[in-house]
Amino acid sequence: MNKEQLVEEVAKSSGFSKKNAEKAVTQVLDSIFEALKQGKEVQLVGFGKFDVRNREARMGKSRKTGEEVQLPAGKVPVFTAGITLKEALN
């Protein structure tokens, strides 16, 4: 499902217009994005948790040439599924 399909589902299930549903979805995603940029954790009980972790510098391989390259340290987003989500998938 892409963002447009998500907006359509939100509009259909909530009774919102498509325009208002798009605003709501965009605002939720922007809020999660901003919280992660500030290093905050976002926890949606039952769904999951979004967090930022530091990744150490390491050696990797170039996909094009196969030679080893140094990958810099950086921050990466991480999602951990909640118990309710995990149970719904089983």
Please tell me about this protein's structure.
43% of the residues lie in helices and 30% in strands. It contains three helices and five strands; from the N terminus they run H-H-E-E-E-E-E-H. It has helices at 3-14, 18-37, 83-89; strands at 42-44, 48-55, 58-61, 68-71, 74-81. Keywords: DNA condensation, DNA-binding. This is HU family DNA-binding protein. It holds the Pfam family Bac_DNA_binding. GO terms for molecular function: DNA binding.
Keywords:
single chain; 90 residues; alpha+beta; three-stranded antiparallel beta sheet; two-stranded antiparallel ribbon; 3 helices; 43% helix; elongated
Shape: elongated
Spatially, the strands of the biggest sheet line up as 1-2-5
How helical, in percent, are the residues? Answer: 40-55%
| Arithmetic mean pLDDT | 95
Subunit organisation of the chains: single chain
Strand proportion, as a percent range, falls in 25-35%
Structural class category: alpha+beta
SSE string, helix = H, strand = E?
A: HHEEEEEH
Low-confidence stretches: none
Count of distinct strands: 5
Q: What composes the largest sheet?
A: 3 strands, antiparallel
Please compute the radius of gyration using only Cα atoms: 18 Å
* Alpha-carbon distance between the two ends: 20 Å
Tally the helices.
3
Protein name: HU family DNA-binding protein
Family: Belongs to the bacterial histone-like protein family.
Keywords: DNA condensation, DNA-binding
Organism: Paenibacillus radicis (ex Xue et al. 2023)
